[in-house]
Write a structure and sequence with these properties.
Blueprint lengths: L1 H21 L2 E8 L7 E2 L15 E11 L8 E7 L10 E8 L7 E3 L14 E11 L8 E7 L11 E8 L7 E9 L6 E2 L10 E11 L12 E7 L12 H13 L7 H4 L9 H13 L3
Antiparallel strand pairs: 1-2, 1-3, 3-4, 5-6, 5-7, 7-8, 8-11, 9-10, 9-12, 12-13
Bound molecules: calcium ion (CA) (2 copies).
The site of one calcium ion (CA) has 8 residues, from α2.
Length: 294
Amino acid sequence: MSIIKYCIAAFATVSCMVATAQGGIVERECWLDNNTAQSQSLGASPATLDISSLSAGLHWFTMRVKDDQGMWSPTLTKAFIINEKDNSTATSIQHREVWFDNNVAERQTIGVTPVMLDISSLSAGLHSLTMRVQDDLGYWSSSVTKHFIIPKATVEEDSVELVRYCYWIDDDVANLVVGEFPVCGKTVSGVIDIELDFSELSFGQHTIYWIIGDNKGVWGFYTGEINSTTFFNSRGDVNMDGDLSIGDVTALIDYLLSNDDTGIDMVAADSNLDGNVSIGDVTCLIDYLLGDTW
Ligand SMILES: [Ca+2]
Ligand SMILES: [Ca+2]
C-alpha cells in the first residue's frame, strides 16, 4: 500500500507542476495495469485508490491530468508489487552453506561459526566467498559475498615488509584504489581480505589489476610485474543465462513471491548490493536496464 501512497505523492507533484504552468488542473485520471478501458477519475490530491482486488505480484499504476486549456499531460507510470502475506514464525538457523567463486554446485555445508575453510586448492588471484543460512521453516536467507586475493609470492630481503596494495579495474587507472594491509610483514602469503568496490561496475567481463607495495616505497617489488585477473560481473543476472534482460526482473519477482530459489543466482539477485534480496533489487534492476548504469 505504501507504493500506492508514493504514486499518489508523485501524482500530486505532477499536478502542482502542470497547474503552475497552465493555470489549473480540471481533471485527473488513473488506471492500473495498462487497462485504460477502466480508467478512474481522481479527486484533488491526496487521493486514495482501492487495490484490494489485485492479486499478489507486479502491477502498474498510470496517471495523467488535464489543465484548463484542455491539454492532457504525458502519462506517468510506476511499478509496484503486492507481496504474499508473510506468516513466518522461524526461530532458529538450521543449516549454513558457503561456496567459492560463484560455484554454487560445489557449495559446502558448515557448522556453527567459527569454521575453518580449506583454500589450499585455490589459485593465486581474486576470489569470492559466498554464504547463506536456512531457518527452521526451510527458508534460505539472502547470500552475502566477500572478495579476497591470494598473493603468489614471498620476498627474500630481510628489511623489506609488504605494507600496502593498490588496484584498478579495466583501463580506469585514474581511479585506482590504494589501501594498507591489515597485517604487514616479510610475506603476504595467505589471504588478503580487501573490500573491493564493485558498486558502479557494469554488467559483463572485466579485468582487475593489482600490485603490492613495500615499506621502502616501492610498488610491485616482489615480482616486478602487475598482477591481473579477468572476471565476469554477473550482478543482476538473476536467471543465470549470461545476459541482463527483463527476464531477470521476472525471475526476481517470481522468487520474491514464491521464496523458491531454484534456478536463481542469489548473489546476482542482490542487485542493489545491500545484502538482502528484496523489492529494492527489482527497482535497481529496472533502473539499470533503462539507464545502463547502477
Ligand atoms: Ca539473465
Ligand atoms: Ca538487495
